[in-house]
Amino acid sequence: MTVKANLSSLVIGYGNPLRSDDGVGWQVAGRLAVDPRLAGVEVLQRHQLTPELALDVSRADLVVLVDARSGPLPGTVAVERVDPAPESATTWSHHLGPASLMALAKELYGRSGDVQVVSVGVGSLDVGEQLSPAVTDALERVIDTVVGLVRGAPGPPVEPVARNARA
């Protein structure tokens, strides 16, 4: 089997690492940054998606965002392809959602790569750096899912999520 590596991929894990499961994006990004399967892939840890990321998003063929999601059962892993927000729906501030970030990249730099959001259902948003047991148990699935997306290989099965939900 031939594995197709994306030549220009960007992974951004985001959230608040001091609010338990909201820090899952940070933890996943930290582990992916040293994962040999993603050698050469840019991996970032951020508190939130900001307009400054639009340049990075415009340069990548594939962008994978990793974040916590309220609503699904704790530890539920889902993948959602993001379409850019319609031009009339975009507003720019210090914080953007994935669709608005894509739209800003297109508006400012003329392009945005394919954007996929890998989300994890939260069990706790309490103050603290420890993930809940359910999210801890899901970490390897999340990492394998991101690696699969970047390498163009099918990843482990994930649960579908409603479109336009917070990622």
Q: CATH class, anyone? A: Alpha Beta
- Per the CATH scheme, the topology name is Rossmann fold
The ordered H/E elements are: EHEHEEHEH
Q: By CATH's scheme, which homologous superfamily applies?
A: HybD-like
Number of strands: 5
Strand order of the largest sheet: 2-1-3-5-4
Structural class: alpha/beta
User: Percent of residues in beta strands?
Assistant: 15-25%
Our count of domains comes out at 1
Shape call: globular
Helical residues, percent: 25-40%
Q: What do you see in this structure?
A:
The protein has a single domain, classed as Rossmann fold. 28% of the residues lie in helices and 20% in strands. The protein contains four helices and five strands; from the N terminus they run βαβαββαβα. Strands 2-1-3-5-4 form a five-stranded mixed beta sheet. α1 (24-32) links the parallel β1 and β2 (42-46). The longest helix has 19 residues, at 133-151. Residues 1-6 and 160-167 have low confidence and may be disordered.
List keywords for this structure.
167 residues, Rossmann fold, 5-stranded mixed sheet, 5 strands, 20% strand, disordered N terminus
Short description:
The protein has 167 residues and is of the alpha/beta class.
How is the topology of this model organized?
Blueprint: E1 9-14, H1 24-32, E2 42-46, H2 54-59, E3 62-69, E4 77-82, H3 98-109, E5 114-121, H4 133-151
Parallel strand pairs: 1-2, 1-3, 3-5
Antiparallel strand pairs: 4-5
Helix pairs in contact: 1-4
